Every structure is written in structure tokens, then in C-alpha cells.
Amino acid sequence: MKKQFRVWSSVAVLTACTTLLFTASCKKEETPADAPQKGSQPKVESVTKAGGKSVCYVEVNSNSLLNTGKYTLTTGGQQLFDIAIIFAANINYNTSTGKAVLYNNPNVTNVLVNKATQIVPLQNKGMKVLLSILGNHQGAGFCNFTSRADARAFAQQLADTANYYGLDGIDFDDEYADYGNNGLPQPNDSSFVMLLDELRQLMPTKIISFYYYGPAASRLSWGGKKAGDFVDYSWNAIYGSYSVPNVAGLSKANLGPAAVDIQATSQTTAKSLATQTKNNGYGIYLWYNLTSTNKATYFSAVSSVLYGSNVTYTP
User: Fold this and answer.
1) Which tens digit of pLDDT belongs to each residue from 245-273?
2) Dihedral sign, CA of 55, 232, 90, 191?
3) What domains does the chain contain, in order, with CATH numbers?
4) Which pTM does this prediction carry?
């Protein structure tokens, strides 16, 4: 089945900026009611619930990440989504330095620099917030680093960004790299595992997740090490389908075979995928493309299976 194509308006500008310096001009947003006030120490709510974790990607070029925090279980009050993912930053190629660089378009930058109003409110609800990294048609990707030094240099950019903005981790999505562009090499067997190894050393306690797709999905072991030694979670990338990611070293609790596009997958299919997930003992359910529209009824069809509760929407 062909993967659902995901469109994003990435700014096609080569940039060599470091992860600690962003030049995009961002309008300051009003502080939402649930944002922590200066000097306060808000109590972090618990998101723990039986039935596994729900993970949600948000296209922040067109939608607010805060939408993920508007859904709770009617019974118990826990958040529906355990992990919210900012979709997406890019791995770009700097033709001047010949190096891979992390690039955040203005919309991603807006979320990061306004972390107090865009990220922290979700974390205060007990949710984790990750930044997804995606190819950008420039030939640079996770699978074509030719030296450990280059892999570590890019891993350092990712770790610096996660630490600086208080993110809970990094997600890898090996799409749209267009390997071979700019004269860059094709994927090799060592690159992705080296990158994961280096990032885990730099982020020993943060989350690393893998969207099971692209050349990286068939290059998950090298030199006696495997991706499952370093990543915490992996999930299916084909929306509307059920397929267990083949990531050795991850238990069922850390794998998500069900994936739905909230805007395209039928409620009947979403519920069926939830039933398979529960019956087969897997611990992750993946959602993609959350907008501002109230989808409580749609989500309830799944949560009633996974968590034994409907979902309540709070604008």
C-alpha cells in the first residue's frame, strides 16, 4: 500500500545556522490560561493510563500543537495523547561546508521559541513533546553519513536543540531526502545506526523514536549494534493499515503497528486497528494530522477499545 503523501510548506533556503540561533521573526502569542505563570511551579499532571500510549503528529505549518492537549478520557480524566510530535524540522545540506545541518522553518521555529506557551502547557499535562526530523530534497539524510564524526556532528545539533528548548526527544522520519542530490552518496548500512548511537550518548534520558519508513527501515543493524539498542519507540507509517515495525530489540509495548490519518482514515477502520492493537498486546497507537476540528467522537471509537472510555474535548 502506498504511503499517504504528507505535504508541508518547507522553506527552500539553505542555512548553516546553529541550533541555538534562529533568525525567524516570531510574533509573541498571548499566554493561554493553562500556561505557567512566571515564577510558578505548576504541578505536572499524570498521563499514565492502561491500554498503551497514543502518539500524535501535528503539521505545525497549519495547525497548533496545543490541539493535542484538548482531549481527555471521559473516565479518569487522563490526556488522550501521551506524545505530541512537532512535524517537522529538516535535515538540510550546506553546500558551502559540505555538512548536514538542522533546519527549522519559520513555523517550527515559532513553536520552539514560544515554548512557554506552545510546549510547556502540554508537558504540564504530563505529555511528552518531540521534534520530528525530515528530509528536505537536498540529498542529506540519516542514511548517508560516511563517517562517525559527521554523524556525531548532526546528532549534536539535535541534542542541543532538544536541550535548549526543553523538548522530550527527537523523532526520525526518513522521507524526502532525495539521496544523490547535490552529489551526495546513496544510503549505506552504517550511517543510521551510527547516528542513533551518537544521539543516545548525547541524550541518555530523552526519547528517540523512529517512524518506520524509508531507507532507514532496512538499515537497522551494523557493527554488532542495532537500532533497537538506541530507540525507545517505533511505529507503522502506512496510514489506515496494521503492520508491526521490524525493529529488533523493542518489545511489543514500544511498537505501534496501527497508524491512522485523522483526516482520511475512516472511524470504522480506526476502531478495527485499535482492536487489533489491543488483542495482539502492542503498546502504541499512532495518529497523524490533528487539526482544530473537534474529533472527540472519532477518537472515542478508538479510546473505548484501548482505554475503556470515551473522549472529552475541551476547547
Assistant:
1) 999 999 999 999 999 999 999 999 999 99
2) negative
3) 53-313 (3.20.20.80)
4) 0.87
